[in-house]
């Protein structure tokens, strides 16, 4: 497993076990959605197909590791 993949698994585990999340959603391009599922994401979202805020699912926390787009206006 690559270093990045192992870090993703660690983040998913922390999110579920330490912070008590019942589900973890993650975004990737179309070709990497199965990888996200295999790493433990309950919901793999294709960011090339639309906007996060347009999804029917609602999220309590969004952890943005890139920070290029403002997701929520206050």
Description of the molecule:
It comes from Vigna angularis var. angularis. This is Alcohol dehydrogenase-like C-terminal domain-containing protein. Belongs to the zinc-containing alcohol dehydrogenase family. Quinone oxidoreductase subfamily. GO terms for molecular function: oxidoreductase activity, acting on the CH-CH group of donors, NAD or NADP as acceptor. InterPro entries: AOR-like, NAD(P)-bd_dom_sf. A two-stranded parallel sheet has the order 1-2. The protein starts with a helix and ends in a 28-residue tail after the last strand. By secondary structure, it is α+β, with helices and mostly antiparallel strands. Helix 2 (33-39) links the parallel strand 1 (25-28) and strand 2 (43-46). The longest helix has 16 residues, at 3-18. It has helices spanning 3-18, 33-39; strands at residues 25-28, 43-46. The protein is globular. The protein has one domain: NAD(P)-binding Rossmann-like Domain (Rossmann fold), CATH 3.40.50.720.
So what's the CATH class? Answer: Alpha Beta
User: What sort of overall outline do the alpha carbons produce when their principal axes are compared?
Assistant: globular
Overall pLDDT, averaged? 76
Report the end-to-end length measured between terminal Cα atoms: 39 Å
Structure annotation, total helices: 2
User: How many distinct beta strands?
Assistant: 2
Order of helices and strands: HEHE
Number of domains: 1
Low-pLDDT windows of residues: none
CATH topology: Rossmann fold
Largest sheet: spatial strand order: 1-2
Q: Considering the protein shown, what is the CATH homologous superfamily?
A: NAD(P)-binding Rossmann-like Domain
Strand content: 5-15%
